[in-house]
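Fold these two proteins, one after the other.
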Amino acid sequence: MGMWLLAWWAIFVIGGRPVVGSDVVYDGRSLIVNGSRAILFSGSIHYPRSTPQMWPSLIAKAKQGGLDVIQTYVFWNKHEPAQGHYNFKGRYNLVRYLKEVQAQGLYATLRIGPYIESEWSYGGFPFWLHDVPDIIFRSDNEPFKFHMQNFTTKIVNLMMANGLYASQGGPIILSQIENEYQNIEAAFHEGGPAYVKWAAEMAVGLKTGVPWMMCKQSDAPDPVINTCNGMNCGETFAGPNSPTKPSMWTENWTSFFQVFGGEPYIRTAEDIAFAVALFIAKNGSYINYYMYHGGTNFGRTGSAYVTTSYYDQAPLDEYGMIRQPKWGHLKELHAAIKLCSKTLLSGTPTNFSLGELQEAYVFEQSKGECAALLSNSNRTNSATVNFRNSSYELPPRSISILPDCKNVVFNTAKVSVQSTIRSATATKKFDGAGRWKEFKDAIPNYNGTSLKADELLEHMSTTKDVSDYLWYTFSFEHNSSDVQPVLNVETRGHVVLAFVNNVFVGTAHGNPKVQSFNLENPISLQDGKNDVSLLSVMVGLPDSGAYLEHKVAGLRRVTIRDSESHNFTKYAWGYKVGLMGEDLKIYSRLGAREVQWSADGSSTNQPLIWYKTNFATPDGSDPIALNLGSMGKGEAWINGNSIGRYWVSFHTQKGVPSQTLYHIPRSFLKPLRNLLVLFEEIGGDPLQITLETISISGVCGHVSDSHPASSVPFSGLEQSKRPPTVQLRCPPRKTISTVEFASFGTPVGDCDSYSMGSCHSEKSKAAIEKACLGKRGCSVALSSGNFGGDPCPGTLKSLLVDAKCK
């Protein structure tokens, strides 16, 4: 390294000597990339949860939203599905993905793990790892460390071979080893810290030329950086474990993953922005949004009970469309921070109280540059604070950003961007006569199975994750009784279906909060031999916890009660892994020819039915989804590509399905005769299924006298003096067709729910229609002159507009 560069570093060292990583270094204040330090905004976009055709648009929208970095996990179980056999094709083409990030001028953070959790089946571990002799995952265990090091080295070498590290001129500025290990470290006693030390030394020894990090790992050994995960790291993070390391936030959760039967978690744009601004105020310099785009858990990739749609409430929704106001509000936050990032990074920080729950964070440079963030942590009440001889109004739980310590250019609680309304439009209903063909999967019995055991086998160890399904079968002799027989099955799977003499007798399922559940149903038995077939179903493998390799699933106890109790737990059992339809791959065009399909397709609400049909691709470029609201539980394939598990019958406490729409990427389709195949486990009505296009159908804006002006684009501090303005903009090729609601005055509520207030200009709607109808976008200032006068002088005004796009 040249002496000039070392001298340059010395100027910016805060809290200790910087650590060298070729072109990427760090010190106690920030990462330094190619000689420049910056506050970096990052977003998680996972390459397997979208398609290569979607990657350019997703990355471009992230860049437009003010991001500097794309962060992704590396998915071991998909890259090495069989030991020593690697897959980096299609959605798993990591090199292509990172080159796209680089082509669009962004950096990348590579979270190799290789344990990732991520609501991904088995936490990203390939299931063959489970069968390695004497292995104990994520511990100071030689078999595990051998395979972990082997895969980590494989990925690092792949990145190096393609010149993808920043030290080679590539986009990767940061890598991660392990993932939230401190959550389970104590379970391994003295072996936990030993494993952390080994993992850090192993990773650093690979000499990537960029820093390594461990998230949620306060004992991360030097030079590995410990980082924070959570929703409020500005309040919960104790900070880096060395003054030579920067304060970094690896996961700022933009919503939360959803499980079948669970309600969606809605985190507001205001809450996210407050958390980010507070973290920066407390010397944070890297913030990653988890997720920035969640995407889709295609196939069987989601972990236990996790829905197929992943983080749909992120700034870019499941389909890759911009979700407003979250995307736009965060974009404005990024622009405001970047106005003063040099001062924030190089200035001397001080903070002091402005009130009981109010605080000023001030950064000053020797030449007089000054930036301030004024915080109000009170969640219910606004506060008026005095700062440098000026008065500032701070809404509840908000931070105002003053790039010059005078003018407010952004407040985290004041949203000036529009909200968007997403809708689905049915383009095809699969209800025509003869539309569907069907095939009933086979129900095996004991004599028809090749795998036998005198006990109940553990589900995951038996299936090896090649299928969600495992049949347990047995036969027994029964003599007539006056007592109604009752079948009781205790299981640690997720779903169980019971058949007696090939007749469906019932089903039951668990939920994420219970480890086991029971199916108990009256059954009919015949005199003599009876065949019992029990289908155990997993909805994703577990993804977290200590000793993951020891977790179990499947049937634990089986009894039949009549005049006495008959325990079949220790008995002669026959097993079959998977379904006949899976074995034959009848979800593919070639495999579908292997069975005789019934032509009428009329077996609605029957279990174990495969359905198939064909359809043409809808015109246009809008995203496409399959509405499976009439079905029960199963999986869906388009032209042989699984679009994921569906589970419509598992309702939330509000009595509705957690998910009814299932994303079909357009790259899965061809113009005509697309093959749609469903496997329905418990019964549904395919005649009610619809194919739908997803679009932004409406826009809504809401500003008030107390709102700052729109800050996009920032051209200087004079922006803060402009009047608040409602700005509406429809998606490409659409215009504002209808003004549903408009009120200049004191409208009640917000874009999610509104009504007329006590003060209202009768000319509101006409004024908005004149300015906006027929246009893709329009802008209307909060000014009485635009509405023919002031309807209530002396009252603070708001303007709320809800419009449709067509």
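Now the second one:
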Amino acid sequence: MASLNTPMVGRQTEYEHLSSLLSADTGQALVIRGEAGLGKSALLGYVAEQASLQGYDCVRAVGVEAEWTTPFSGLHQLLDPLLQTCPAAAGAHRHLFDVIFGRELGEAPSLLAVGVATLDVLRAASSVTPLLVLLDDSQWLDTLSADVCGFVGRRLSGSNIKMVIAVRSDGIEPFDGAALPEICLTPLGDESARFLLKTHHPELDEETQRLVLEHAEGNPLALLELPHHISDTQQGSGGPSFLSTGDVPLPRRLEHMFASRVKQLMRTERDELLRAALDGLGSKKAPCPQESHYRMRSITGSLANGLLVIDPVTGEPAFRHPLVRSTLVQLATPNERRAAHADLAQIYPHDVERRAAHLAAATLDPDDDVARTLDDAARSATQRGSSATAVAWLTRAAELSEHAAERSRRLGDAAFIAGQAALMDQAQHILDSQRPVSGTDSPALVITSAYLGLYQHGDVRSTHRQVAAAAESLSVNSGAGSRELLTRLLNLLLVTSMYAGDSDAWQRTERIFEAVADRVDPLTTLCRDAVSDMARIGSNVSARLDRVLSDVTAMPPWDATFLTVAAYYADVLWRYRPHLERLVAREQNCGAVSNVMTLLHLVMLDQFASGDWTEAERTGRQVLDLTRTHGNELFRQRSKAHLGLLAAARGDVSQAREIGASVSAWCEPRGVGCLVETAKAIDMTASLSEGDYEAAYLSATSITSPGTFTPYAPQASRTLLDLVEAALHTGRKKEARLHALAARDAGLAERSPRLALLTWGTLAMTTEDESTAETLFARAEAGSSGSNFPFELARIQLAHGTRLRHGRNQRGAREILQRAAETFDRLGATPWARRAHTELRASGTGVPSFTNPQELTWQERRIADLAASGMTNRQIGERMFLSPRTVGSHLYHIFPKLGITSRAALRDALSRADDARTPAEHT
């Protein structure tokens, strides 16, 4: 450690930077980067000593490789002394820290909540005396702790806190993206290196000095330690020569140098140091007063030869440098390391994760007790936010399982968590390494294979066959432990069937459910009723969801996610929006990326349904970015499809159709029928948007026929309004009425609030009786669901207002059309807004006309000219080789573009449009 009286050579610039940080009148953070041996720890020692003289309190943590995978271990090292000595600092966050540090069970908090709580504790600790936070060897901090420290470091302005982070630049760099100020240490220049060497080793002759300077390469640690090594080598004490290692990197050569000293120790003392190194302690960090850890004994030889020093702050022995610790581990034989880990496991009887880590490293042969401990540790890691650690421990637990069934179950759990966390490469590795030679996967491995096949490749058909076969096989086995596995298979079968959108696949799924009816989890049955066929079996889903979704955050993540999917299909997702947002935060913290993508999809769909279209697009693009990062191709297509629907509703027809064509081209050959249907819905909405009602009708009827609702097709009931609207605009009043009556007879109004709105609205639009129509329109518009589905409500209001205007009830029409126009304007549904404003003008409201009508296509202009000349639709069709209905749909498209509502106004509108064109355009 550098002292104020013995300053480091060649680091004056860094000293000035650190002094400036301490004297600043506001909180600041600083990252010091550099390779091993350049003096990062010495600079931390310097700033700690200077801060002490200026009245600072100091807290510190040291990253340790042994704890790198343990969630929040670094944060525990940093904060626990404060929480023990100053309990008031924890304040309202006591439970949060007890959960993340494994003292209590509870819902894993979000990283944002942990960051805010950590900042609050540090601010409380610095309320009287300024506080210096030091993080050394930060490349070995666990990821969650590093993220929290980065969060805190960016928010120190206005506080009494300074933070200095030392990180090795040749290792893992968790603070790369932290956006904190940095200084990068470089090797000493020739003059400084020579001065340092002469100061500490004046006895060296010129030739030895030259060798040391040449091989130290300006590294201060090498300059200080290399002369001792040369002396030992010359005296024949053994060890590889530092100078004979050729192109080996300098840090590795320094390890060779420390190795020669380790080999001089007695066996018992080497064992002491090895235990300390493997425990991640004895590394210049202040121990928690109540923390049990291995305490080194009989270490006089290590202190004498410079492998250990006494930390002046704690009075505890500490390694001279982090490279000493890594050297000890590398030098030990496998048997020596296993024996040390076995000893260490005994000092953590109540710390399940640390005990598990040591037992896993100590155990060679299968051992069910150790496997169970690793199982418990994996559950703890999942709850505390480290899916990757849980996967590693479950995989190791499977290796140590004595029985094949437990081995298979643990591998399935590992692969399941890997799939939930979008760790597809790890899931694939588990599958490849554990797949039996016979080619017959266990049900647990089938789940892994199915996740990969479905989400990475969209292979719906073969995935469904694979999962269905495994579920059928397990249906005849009611042994212990099979229920959870069966539930996972059934849930995955539902998801696969949902994406397939295929009647045969769903019928096989239902047969499997019937075969295991007495063993199906009630939540799985509820999800089945919601996602399979709402029009047929989705009765009472909404009320059942209310009973189980009072607090989804108390459920396992996969159950909670699936239930929110069911809420979307039942059109009641808006009721659980606060729960949904908390779920997203929790799953992001727990690393369950697949769940996060599903939940964000649902957030987007709820934003779209509730009319927050700008946020819906932002959320959709966020999911799209996640799918690219994690290689989830199925979710990528799903994200694109949802964005395509949004574009179509806005009137971005070209973009919508391009997306729809792309989604269909990818999904159709893979059997992803659900998204193929969505692509058809995109085309249908785009056609409605541009007023091509004939094309819209054809798209709608490709999803479901008038008067029926195709089984197991979610879009079938959702296109109710679209089909009826397109049918009415193309003169198919009979088909429109038939479809509205089918919705009523199927009881769709009882299935969901949205379907109730659509059912009453379409019945009103298709009835001939004016009094009945008014009653039905009032019923549709008065329902509380209207505010949750403003786009559909405004379209029904547009139809209502148009009908009133044609019935010469201009005053009633204006009031309703005004509401519709305001909604369309707010949403950004431009084509519908244009129609609503056109109808408003026709009803006598002084609404400004569109001064810049959209340009007509060549075909539209030709049809408009012929219609203005007095030709009928049939005559125009014969002239242009179009059907009369197609001509009519084109005219419905043309009228809003020109700001008119009838053929009689065509001639004047075309004349005005021509007059508005520039001379160049006329030419």
